[in-house]
Design a protein that fits this description.
With about 190 residues, this protein is of the alpha+beta class. Helices cover about 20% and strands about 35% of the residues. The chain has one domain: q2cbj1_9rhob like domain (Jelly Rolls). The protein has 3 helices and 11 strands. Helix 2 packs across helix 3. It is globular and about 40 Å long.
Length: about 190
């Protein structure tokens, strides 16, 4: 699996002085379709929120138990290359996978800027097997209190970033015919990632 992560093309994006890494070729289209069908069929529950200030606005989530994640071949097929990519990019910080959950967001959902597990690294996998530009749903990254970078939710795209980088999921537009689905892989690190 390390070969898949190293063979992928990674583009650096910046949010102020911070780097994030985006790949559009870590997974092939047939696997993207399989994972999309799998995640769309999973039960999602209102749980979790972005910040204490938005704690009354719960999001639709599906949480995996880490010890059961490898039981499904499709989930194993995306988990292993993502873990390998995080190891390659952030190995010196000793990343350890601590949480994996799916997010399901619809037009009108309230999503706020937040950070993730700290110190740590987050990997977001964009689940939808089709996405149109008019559907919006970009992930916004902030620096100095202002959104400075947007990453579109392209099918099968993966983005890696320091977990303390302020970010916000974008809800899909009114013309979107589906929900915006992602899987978040959250890693704890031994020290903060610059």
């Amino acid at each position: 699996m390390a070969e898949a992560a190293s063979a992928a093309t990674w583009a650096e994006r910046r949010a102020g002085e911070r780097s994030m890494w985006v790949s559009d070729d870590l997974f092939d289209a047939p696997l993207v379709k399989i994972v999309h069908r799998l995640v769309a069929a999973l039960p999602h529950y209102r749980a979790d929120y972005d910040t204490e200030a938005s704690s009354d606005v719960l999001h639709l989530k599906h949480e995996w138990k880490l010890d059961e994640l490898g039981e499904n071949p499709a989930m194993r097929a995306i988990r292993d290359p993502i873990v390998a990519a995080v190891e390659q990019r952030y190995g010196q910080y000793q990343p350890e996978l601590k949480r994996v959950h799916a997010n399901d967001q619809a037009f009108g959902d309230i999503l706020t800027a937040h950070t993730d597990l700290q110190p740590g690294v987050t990997a977001i996998y964009y689940v939808n097997d089709a996405w149109e530009q008019a559907w919006d749903g970009e992930t916004l990254f902030y620096a100095g209190g202002e959104a400075v970078t947007a990453v579109a939710p392209r099918p099968g795209r993966v983005i890696l970033f320091p977990a303390d980088l302020v970010h916000r999921s974008g809800a899909p537009s009114r013309v979107c015919r589906t929900t915006r689905r992602t899987i978040a892989f959250k890693f704890k690190t031994a020290t903060p990632v610059p």
